[in-house]
Design brief:
- By secondary structure, this protein is mostly beta strands.
- The protein has one domain (2-197).
- Helices cover 0% and strands 52% of the residues.
Amino acid sequence: MYYYGFNNVDIIRNTVHYTTDPLWSIGITSNNNKSLNINQCYINGFNTGIQRGYLIQEDLEDVELIYNEDIRIYNCTLNGGQNNNGTAISIGMVEDYQVSGVKIDLNEISDYKTGIQINNADNFSLGITNNSIIDYELIGISVLNGSEALIKENLISASVSEAEDCMSIYVSQVKNPSILGNTITAYNVSNPGPGMVLISSNGEIRRNTIQNHLYGIELGSASPKIGANTIINNKAYGIYI
């Protein structure tokens, strides 16, 4: 499904299945639309190589969004199937994109290498809330760059044997992220990574439950306010600085 150059796009109650084996395939691509809503869609099992700018990625991208001003993705089910080698939702991971606001909420995401990845170099308003991300292999939620991000009340769980060094939440160079009330777990993973990583970021980390990772929270050149978290059964440290 490809949409280009509309003022308003509503994609509602669609089922998109991967059925063939082309070299290039994406579940939904949206480019240069002012307002985009994706609601109650089921997207399953795309496996491809994607060229963006000067970068070629041989992975899976079920939702790729470029040059959209306002984006909301909610109440959707995204399943990577047996491929498990790409990203369910990818926003801003190309050069010269333009986005003013993004909200990702109430989605069920499973069987991907990465659940949600955001590059917020345009400083758009960002909310990632009440999503379920399970059986991921590498990163549950990744947010790079920007001034603010709300990551709240998500369930993020790794439980596949291939999830070595897995991280549930990775935030880098975001000035004031708010990471609140998330439940983060790793089951049956022999060598998990940190549950949460903040690099060159401040903000706050509160009311999260983090268990069965290497560290609960790892900080690198970061100074967030940390309070009221439950950090249990991790292999090494609760908080590593």
